[in-house]
Automatic annotation (TrEMBL), chains A, B:
Domain HTH lacI-type as annotated: residue spans: 20-76
Keywords: DNA-binding, Transcription, Transcription regulation
InterPro entries: HTH_LacI (IPR000843), LacI/GalR-like_sensor (IPR046335), Lambda_DNA-bd_dom_sf (IPR010982), Peripla_BP_I (IPR028082)
One GO molecular-function entry: DNA binding
Stated name of the protein: LacI family DNA-binding transcriptional regulator
Species of origin: Microlunatus spumicola
Amino acid sequence: MSADDEAGADRGRTSATAAVTLSEVAAKAGVSVSAVSKVLRGTTAIRVSPETRQRILTAAEELRYRPNFAARALQAARTQVLGLVVPDLTNALFTELMHGVEDAAAAHGYTVLLGRLDTDRPQTEVIARLLGEGRVDGLVLQATDGVDPAALAQLLDPRAAVVLINSVAPGRASSVTVDDVGGGRTATEHLIGLGHTRIALAGGLPTSYTAQRRRRGHQEAMRAAGLDPRADHETALGYTAEQGRQALRQLMALDPRPTGIVVANVNAAIGLLAEARALGIDVPRELSVATVLDSWTAENTWPPLTAVKMQFYAMGHTAVVSLVHRLGSGAMTDEVILDPAPELVVRESTAPPSS
Amino acid sequence: MSADDEAGADRGRTSATAAVTLSEVAAKAGVSVSAVSKVLRGTTAIRVSPETRQRILTAAEELRYRPNFAARALQAARTQVLGLVVPDLTNALFTELMHGVEDAAAAHGYTVLLGRLDTDRPQTEVIARLLGEGRVDGLVLQATDGVDPAALAQLLDPRAAVVLINSVAPGRASSVTVDDVGGGRTATEHLIGLGHTRIALAGGLPTSYTAQRRRRGHQEAMRAAGLDPRADHETALGYTAEQGRQALRQLMALDPRPTGIVVANVNAAIGLLAEARALGIDVPRELSVATVLDSWTAENTWPPLTAVKMQFYAMGHTAVVSLVHRLGSGAMTDEVILDPAPELVVRESTAPPSS
DNA sequence: CTGAAAGCGCTAACAG
DNA sequence: CTGTTAGCGCTTTCAG
């Protein structure tokens, strides 16, 4: 705090850095505010004499002028801010996703506002606040898994610039999803390629959109190879480690046992692996395990997991591009990230069947 | 897009949800804007008759009125937005940190704007933009590791509401750090408690503030136990997996070998573990490894890592509380998260020395 | 108890 | 080429 600024010149200021306004620059340069405004934003060519222009530029420079965000936003009715709303910041997939969102946003001149879906508050509330109050120009939204997309769509004003990730709401919002079908297929094909024929699926909950599609990919691969996806070779217990353990116990009770398992989610795979060790089942000698990897949590398991890596960075990136496009043209699209394709990373949890 | 809205009624609107203004509510309720404003924000008691009040409330409700963020921000010179700026969104510790930031921000009526420190652009640029343009009221800032805090402090306007995490700039900005000293000490004490005496440290770069302090903790524990922290038992190579491998090779070349290693960072620990396996060194039979865990990346290594968990959630939470406090009172503080203390999680990478 | 009016900082017509 | 003016939507004195 400088000496005696209780006078009033500074009244009403926040404690933050002193705000230089356009008119102060104008005063210093001896011109009008609008002249300064024009020059500083480089509006419609140079309709200002070079000297004045220079005078303005130096004045702004010396005063360290910064345009006020709120004033601009009010005037333009745009904030150049995008909201990223997810149910759970702890989720590891989120990091990669957010990274993609951030990169794309920055590339298009946007910044990212974080939102979290509170379990206790209705999902609409966040959306209404962010979009309705004009805090953001658009929203990248991941609905909580298990929430019916159709129900969510009801809540969504179709005029709102929202792009859903990992779920769809046709005609209501744009969407971007990773190639879950391809992920399930690729993992399964890998086991088939190794010579496995009794291949099980440890799937997610039937209500989960991602789980449904990974399952579909699995079944497609099986049928394409002339194998029959038997119902008793499928569990649909969920994505937690404990549910993975449970899936293993259930599948290992079969006779004959499957020789390979495709796990639809990495946490479940970790649990499944741990349970296998607990039961004395040798992976990959007796049992091959391939997982659809929705995070990099598990790059250091033992044995290291063979996994199909989903493209979450690309999903975040694409979501923002789609959103920016929507903001510009109003176009609504539903996209699936097919390029890059889900990436098979072969590690040590898979091998040819023992005999 | 609806039929013919080129008319002009909607001109200048964004494509987003239609904005209901105060004056529209006022019109509907048959009162003035200021009346509506007062009632809607519950300003200074009820200086409005119950009937008008009710009329206003229902009008606002029916119109689904939402206060415009930009207008409020402009008027109040506050945005109720806090910036979280970090060098690397990919870093796993970041998730936990961000979670703490988000929770505390929400609890205090703030939302969080994400910022990233571009390697190519100067760090000041981000700060100037966020704070200088009034996009955020305050900043939680993690300087890039290796940047001299003193240099950063130079760039920092001391009037700016900034709280540094994982570094300090006394008198320039507030700061919050995790208890790195305690982390280093706890990991070392654990090995001492198991009976180890030849304990090495695989440390981070000497320029890193966290590395310095973890090292200090290590040495304190050694001296307290009457052990001598020998210089050749210390590496200071860095935090990457490859540098961890390198540290192991270097330390295992000693004669006699150390029987325990404290690793200052989890990525290095993972690399170190992998290298041990490659060299045929049995962990924990021949060598105990304890790490200071700055993320949960490695909960599934083999063998599972004994680790001292740092309190990043608390750091993020505290940083925001500190920031909010600073915004209110102008007070600058330097805090270390001592409660909760770094948490020792014993797994399978540590055991008593073999003989 | 209620309304009119000024102004936050900026932009975009519209005049000179 | 440059300046004046009228808002963007909201809050806040200050009159009525």
